[in-house]
Design goal:
The protein is of the alpha+beta class and 189 residues long. It has a single domain, classed as Spore Coat Polysaccharide Biosynthesis Protein SpsA, Chain A, CATH 3.90.550. The chain has a 5-stranded mixed sheet with strand order 3-10-5-11-8. Strand 6 and strand 7 form a beta hairpin.
Length: 189
């Protein structure tokens, strides 16, 4: 789980439910460095880069340890109901979204289905709960390291070249009031 050290409140909230379901390893998120006089644009840029660097660090560590499948949670993830992590046993190879903000032509759209589903015409935003198998973890790490930007946007572009799956109904969602990707308050991670 990726957590900013200064956000102990999020760590406590996440651990309250997650530690009952699975073993949680906390990865200290990288803070977006910027000057006090930075513009909103400069702050967003610094935060996006820090988010991507945090995901790179978690991917590198997970790949090095060789434990698959694994899930990267951000500290703003929360369950949508009862969680059964055995869904990962039937997961295909590809980007595996356990929580997502589905978008088609710049508008949120509902996802319908049961189990592992794919929606080629829909972009999935949000990095608050993504699972990886070995091949995809290595591909995503290479992709993110080679391209600048935030991990969320990079994964949207990678969806063009990589099988992308979402488990339905979504087992996780972004907690309200934490970070709001749609309104671009990117620094609240």
């Amino acid at each position: 789980m990726v957590n900013l050290e200064k956000r102990k409140d999020r760590l406590e909230t996440f651990m309250a439910w997650a530690s009952k379901i699975f073993d949680v390893r906390v990865f200290k998120a990288i803070e977006g460095a910027h000057s006090p006089s930075a513009s909103v644009s400069e702050i967003r840029t610094a935060c996006r880069k820090a988010c991507a660097e945090s995901h790179i660090g978690v991917l590198e560590e997970a790949i090095r340890e060789g434990v698959y499948p694994f899930v990267i949670f951000e500290d703003d993830a929360e369950p949508c109901g009862e969680v059964d992590m055995s869904i990962l046993n039937s997961a295909p190879e590809g980007l595996l979204y356990l929580g997502a903000l589905p978008v088609k032509v710049k508008a949120r759209v509902p996802l319908e289905g049961q189990g592992w589903c794919t929606f080629p015409s829909i972009k999935l935003y949000g990095t608050h709960a993504i699972a990886y198998r070995k091949e995809t973890a290595e591909k995503v790490l290479e992709w993110i390291k080679d391209r600048w930007g935030n991990s969320d946007t990079k994964l949207v572009y990678l969806q063009r070249y990589c099988d992308t799956w979402v488990y339905l109904p979504l087992p996780f969602k972004q907690a309200p009031g934490y970070s709001d990707i749609e309104k671009r308050r990117m620094c609240r991670r």
